[in-house]
Amino acid sequence: MPTDHGDRLRPRKRFGQHFLHDRGVIARIVESVRIGSEETLVEIGPGRGALTTSLLARCRLLHLVELDRDLARILDESYDDESRVTVHQQDVLTFDFRALVSPLGGSLVLVGNLPYNIASILLIRLLSVVDCIDRAVFMLQREVAQRLAAAPGSRDYGRLTVMIGRVCTVESLFNVDPTSFSPVPQVESTVIRLTPRPRPIGPVVDEQAFSELVRTAFSQRRKTVRNALKHYQPENAFSVCGIDPEVRPEMLSAEDFANLTAVLSDSPAACRTRSLEDVH
Questions:
Q1: How far is residue 175's CA from residue 29's CA, in Å, rounded to a whole number?
Q2: Helix H or strand E encompassing 274
Q3: Alpha helices (H) in 16-112, listed in sequence order
């Protein structure tokens, strides 16, 4: 059983630490993960272990990824006699998730209270390993959660919405009051569930090309897509994809961006002759 070391450490600002202590919220998060008894879980940023014991009671294997060296040591000591727990003292932004998946197949369930300062970066990075993720339940800053679930044309819709929404469904589950944490953060939080789609929305495209196109478009979101993407010389692509070049980037869906990527990856001659049906 874990030992209570919680009072020995203070939250560290440089790690963006806000420790969850509300038992009601903890129970709701664990229920939201919908853990199967044979599943392998990865808890990102377990901190003092508020969720850890409850997660372990329901899964087959549990990996804890914790950057803070002192917290990782305490977790290691606390679960020293539990063979189903592995503590990884490592930055989750460089962590090798694929190494946890059996060569025979299988997938991971991710859960965690993501530090506000790395949440968006981590979500984009997870796209490169989405094929080995079954689902993820994360607590995020409410602003980030709103961006993930935003609809085209809304103020919150942007690069993160398109990149994540193309490959995952996004469910906003419930909000969490700041007083549920110690220290109390200056922002509100939301728990979300991400579930990878059977296949990404739109045509099969080069992922790096897609990412670069979306990044370029939203780096100049106040411009029309014609001007934001002008160095792509996309005039023929707009007509092929049925896109009004005078709208702003936030009006385009993930499928629109995928279609544009597919057409722009072809030769100029192909852009002139290819029909929209060929893009799919």
A1: 11
A2: none
A3: 23-33, 52-56, 69-78
CA distances from 171 to 75, 106, 189 (A): 30, 23, 14
Q: Kindly give, in sequence order, each residue whose CB lies less than 8 Å from that of residue 99, ignoring residues fewer than 6 positions away.
A: none
Any bridge partners for residue 113, and if so which?
139
φ/ψ region of 247 (left if φ > 0, alpha if ψ in -120 to 50, else beta) reads beta
Q: Rounded distance, CA 139 to CA 176, Å? A: 9
Nearest alpha carbon to residue 117 among 82, 141, 84: 141
> 58: burial class by Cβ within 10 Å (0-12, 13-18, 19+)?
middle
Q: Which two tokens stand for residue 123?
A: 């979500």
Contact 24, 53 (CB under 8 A): no
* CA pair distance 138, 221, nearest whole angstrom: 28
Cβ atoms of 78 and 57 within 8 Å: the answer is no
Please, what are the domains in the chain?
A: 6-196 (3.40.50.150), 207-279 (1.10.8.100)
Closest CA to 20 of 43, 58, 49, 59: 49
Report residue 33 CA to chain centroid gap. 15
DSSP state of 19: E
**Is there a contact between 191 and 280 (Cβ–Cβ < 8 Å)?**
no
25-68 per-position pLDDT tens digit? 999 999 999 999 999 999 999 988 999 999 999 999 999 999 99
State how far the Cα of 52 lies from the Cα of 64, in Å rounded to an integer: 8
The pLDDT tens digits of the residues spanning 83-130 come to: 999 999 999 999 999 999 977 678 999 999 988 889 999 999 999 999
CB 17 within 8 A of CB 11: yes
